[in-house]
Amino acid sequence: MDLSSENLIPQVQHSDVGHGRGVYVSTYGCQMNVNDSERMYSLLEMANFTPVASPEQASLIIINSCSVREKPVHKVFSEVGKYRKLKQKNPELKIGVGGCVGQQEKENLMKDQPMIDFVFGTDAIDQLPTMVAQAFAGEHRLVKAQFQHRAPYHVETLVRNPGVSTFVNITKGCDNFCTFCVVPYTRGREKSRPLKHVLQDINELIGRGVKEVTLLGQNVNSYTSDCGADFADLMEKVAQETKIERIRFTTSHPKDFNQKLVDVMYANQPKICEYIHLPFQSGNSRVLETMNRGYSREEYLQKIEMIKKAIPNVVLSTDIIVGFPGETEEEFKDTLSLVQEVGFETIFAFKYSPRPFTKAARFEGQIDEVTKSDRLTRLFEAHDLMARELVKRYEGQTLEILIEAFDEKRGNLSGRSSQNKLVYMPGDASLIGKTMPVKITKAFPAVLRGEILPVQ
Ligand code: 5AD
Ligand code: SF4
């Protein structure tokens, strides 16, 4: 890689490690991992591997693992176990484990499962072609899971077929240390990409037909560029200095969501979409304190008020944990009431699961599984009832939909509104990439159906 110019993103060089062999990447977990898998495919394609659709066709299988919630090592081992027969048939087959479990477990993984040929951490993705070359040259038990603490975060966005909408990493890692979360240990310290690199990436993607970018990071609001720009400044620059049609971002942290960002969102509509994913985790201030979230229920609600005041059509989604250590029935009810009070159209809710290295794993008052499951079910039931009512308002509305894909079998187009509502509608593939007015005919909690209106 060429690191000579600070203004230019270092480019990845092509090589011939793969000799055309098939590579299959199996992905678990969050959007960050989905994006990392795309990077792995791109790097390996540049090293002359051929991406294939199933493990059976591959000479190289990579498991991009997730350890945010339950039984991550078990999941990796059970997947590797499935490849026993493939390894017997094809002794050349190499199996590598990357992602958060790779970072967390390192060489331990290979001790317990000898079929694994190499393990690499979240900061070692760009070393993949070298590691794979070593593995095919006969080296066993390779591990690369050192964090590159000193290295700047200089990466080129690598996407094979970006389509209409794509993700652009702006930060990596997290320094927040919420007491339940393993991410600061598996993704390392927080780093931001230089602002110029982000703009350069987006311009390049626009040249490849991309209409919408989602700026991606564990905690985008704490973005701090080399030139002193914060996240709101970055959003403004992307909106004003590139020709991208739509901008999204995820994930935001309530403690860092400020008026400046809301003002930038308002001033740059409709380019900046009216959708915010703002995890609240618990509706109770005592629980939030023990989670080390840095805000109370009241402060969270104040942020919501600030957002809704400036952007009345905003749609909000959130992440919630139930059964955090010490959470009482009354405190759980505060979570139920916060969901109602804000009126989230979408929630992502999870049972608390103790994670290695984290403080909460050692807290007293761990909640039993039956209680956790009961709370989760009640939360989903209450939310479902509310969401069904909330989405009815879309019926009869006309929304501007960016068309993303065409399903040939069903003859359906799909796309999303500014508020991130997924919409299905009849039409043909020539409309992909266009933003069309669509009249909503039927609304379900997760999807809307509609008909494209003639453009005036
Ligand atoms: N247990 C349950 N859920 C968790 N999350 C993160 N860590 C844990 C854990 N230990 C959830 C949070 C976070 C989302 C990505 O995963 O809600 O926002
Ligand atoms: Fe985990 Fe908290 Fe960082 Fe989000 S902000 S990645 S929940 S430590």
Tell me what the structure shows.
It is a single chain. The chain has 456 residues and is α/β, with parallel strands linked by helices. Helix content is 33%, strand content 21%. The protein has a six-stranded parallel sheet, sandwiched between helices. The protein has helices at residues 31-46, 72-82, 84-89, 99-105, 108-112, 128-136, 183-186, 195-207, 231-241, 259-267, 285-291, 297-310, 329-342, 369-391; strands spanning 22-27, 50-51, 60-65, 94-98, 118-120, 142-144, 165-169, 171-172, 191-192, 212-216, 246-250, 275-277, 315-322, 346-351, 398-407, 412-416, 422-426, 435-443, 447-452. It binds 5'-deoxyadenosine and iron/sulfur cluster (SF4). Residues 174, 176-178, 181, 183-184, 218-219, 253 line the site of iron/sulfur cluster (SF4). 5'-deoxyadenosine binds at residues 30, 68-69, 180-181, 279, 281, 319, 321, 350, 352-353, 355.
**What fold name goes in the CATH topology slot of the largest domain?**
pyruvate-formate lyase- activating enzyme
- The CATH architecture of the largest domain would be Alpha-Beta Horseshoe
Total number of beta strands? 19
Largest sheet: 6 strands, parallel
Number of domains: 3
What is the count of DSSP helices, taking H or I runs of 4+ residues? 14
Which runs of at least 5 residues are low in confidence (pLDDT < 50)?
A: 1-5
Mean pLDDT: 93
Radius of gyration (CA) equals: 23 Å
Measured by DSSP, the beta-strand proportion falls in: 15-25%
Distance between the termini: 50 Å
Shape: globular
Give the class from helix and strand content and strand pairing.
Answer: alpha/beta
Helix content: 25-40%
CATH homologous superfamily (4th level) name of the largest domain: tm_1862 like domain
